[in-house]
Amino acid sequence: MAEYVIVPVDQLVRIPMTMSFEDAAGVPTAAGTAWQALFEVARLTSGQTILVHAGAGGVGIVISVSGFRCRNPNLSEDRR
């Protein structure tokens, strides 16, 4: 594996100071998986309601804040 790569600047995102490199590395994985599940597999449209089963992990949280009406029994009321 390479130690260095060249990446276009418009494809970079600054990691918040409060986030570890390990946590930041998981964000694209969770967001990509959620996007594929919502739009490519389920073909959801705005206004639909979805149940996020076992949604306390990265993918479930991304889906829960995606703009759909979500029912995520694993998140506290203040995070729904």
Automatic annotation (TrEMBL):
Keyword Oxidoreductase carried by entry: yes
Superkingdom field: Bacteria
InterPro entries: NAD(P)-bd_dom_sf (IPR036291)
Keyword Transmembrane helix set for record: no
Entry coiled-coil feature ranges: none
Assigned keywords, A-Z: NADP, Oxidoreductase
Signal peptide annotation: none
Gene Ontology molecular function: NADPH binding; oxidoreductase activity, acting on NAD(P)H
PANTHER family the record matches: QUINONE OXIDOREDUCTASE PIG3 (PTHR48106:SF18), QUINONE OXIDOREDUCTASE PIG3-RELATED (PTHR48106)
Protein's recorded name: Enoyl reductase (ER) domain-containing protein
